Amino acid sequence: xxxxxxxxTVAHYRLMKAAIDVLxxxxxLFVPVSDAYLRRKMRHSHPPVVLSPELRVKMLRxxxxxxxxxxxxxxxxxxxxxxxxxTLLALRDEYPDHEIYFLMxxxxxxxxANMAERRDFFDSFRAILYSRGEEALEQELMGNELLAxxxxxxxxxxxPEGTDGVSSSVIRERMLxxxxxxxxxxxxxxxxxxxFTAADFPDVVxxxxxxxxxxxxxxxxxxxxxxxxxxSVDAAFRALSAGxxxxxEMLEFMESLVQAKFYGNxxxxxxxxxxxxxxxxNGNQKKELFxxxxxxxxxxxxxxxxxxxxxxxxxx
Length: 316
Known about the structure:
Layout: E1 2-3, H1 10-23, E2 28-32, H2 35-42, H3 53-64, E3 70-72, H4 84-94, E4 100-105, H5 109-116, H6 121-124, E5 125-131, H7 134-142, H8 145-149, E6 154-158, H9 168-176, H10 187-193, E7 204-205, E8 223-225, E9 228-230, H11 233-240, H12 247-263, H13 266-273, E10 279-280, E11 283-284, E12 293-294, H14 303-315
Parallel strand pairs: 1-2, 2-3, 4-5, 5-6, 7-10, 11-12
Antiparallel strand pairs: 8-9
Helix pairs in contact: 3-10, 12-14
């Protein structure tokens, strides 16, 4: 079973156990996705509740501790690209004498259809689909040529008791609202999750676009730096940064320009203060990793965002 497990729920546990019982399987493996993938997935959530990969793995291991048939495979942690099929191939190599089932909910039928387009997928693997409407799901399967052709490689199981309405998103919503979600988590997982509150997950501005375009260096605004007027931080930096002899000097130079921008434009300072405690990330899709963060790999130092947040904190 692959997933974000952000956090892992009792539904994840019961779905896996039900599959093991029906198939008489030897192992049930939980495969958490990478941090980069999860952050991309949660980018449009406000606030984005993203548990660290280390914590998600730890929660899954705690959930598996009392059952020898369950285990965690952390092969995708630290990767960037989606890796469902490569992960399945790696597991096939690790367990050459086993039959491997890919377990998913019926809402992921589109993913299964995409996987079926690989000629060797159903040659090597089987799939398990959980559904509360088996007849409707059967019709959907037969309506797809590739899935219908491989219908004998797909197992449909009824949704187990105690899983309806239980999801990681519901747990996150309850936590943010200050409500208990103890019954939706296994006891060991609850011990790890119970101390989190909304304060641990400040909202994020992850791109300096739209209503937050004023945070970007190219935003047109006049300001004076060393008695010379410039039209934007970007223009000033391009014109003057060639004299910087080191990365530290370049950083200090950028900081002085951004300070001049906000201190010289009270309206922009007010808008900056209105961002409250939001984390300001100069997100981009250009792999600019020093001043910002690449929103695909989620790598980057975010130096510009940090400079702006320091100015905001000092001006309060």
